[in-house]
Amino acid sequence: MTVSPVVFKPDYALARLLLGDSFISPEEITVTHPDVVYGSKQLARLAATLPAETTLALLGGYGYGLMPRPPKKLSLVDIRATWPDRFRQNTGRWYEQEQFSKSDLTGGTGWPATRETPANGSTKKSMEEQDKLLTDTEYVPNAAEMSWFVATLFGVRGVRLFEKTFVRTSSLAAHDVRVYVGCFGPLQGIDIIGVWGNGRGVDLGLAPARRL
Known about the structure:
Layout: H1 13-19, H2 26-32, H3 40-48, H4 53-61, E1 64-66, E2 74-75, H5 76-82, H6 92-96, H7 100-103, E3 105-106, E4 113-115, H8 127-131, E5 138-139, H9 143-157, E6 166-173, E7 177-182, E8 191-195, E9 204-205, E10 209-210
Parallel strand pairs: 6-9
Antiparallel strand pairs: 1-4, 2-3, 4-10, 5-10, 6-7, 7-8
């Protein structure tokens, strides 16, 4: 007797109901990005570790997007090399020479939740003032984490985040230059800039990620 293999079909209906287009499943990433491949064990692990209903509702209420990390460790330069058309081309050389662009990584099984807009009141504030806006369950993602989130959401949903603002990351360039991601407007790709010192700006905000 031939036994048919069990086909694993994760149920993401509740997440889609509570988060709408702000939820992206690994299968959706794979369909729209054939170069990104999750293994069967990774898919099963992601389905088993999807946040509970109360957490999903909380994320939706506070403007968080939810998607899986890439299936393997990626740096900022890896992500940019995979989807160069999603990044601003004429400013990339500066950060390609910086250590953070290769050593700050994202990847592995998990569901990072990231705010899709800068935190309320986070612009025109110093880094210390922005950090006071973080809750105990929030943290500042690095440049690779934020770039994966922004680039993937655009690839799957066609949504551009942070069109007119930059958001601070935890990544640091040389001489304590702080790295920001944003200004993903229709005429240019995702921009990566460095801001020296404790700079403030009307277009410099903070979009935290949440520990789940």
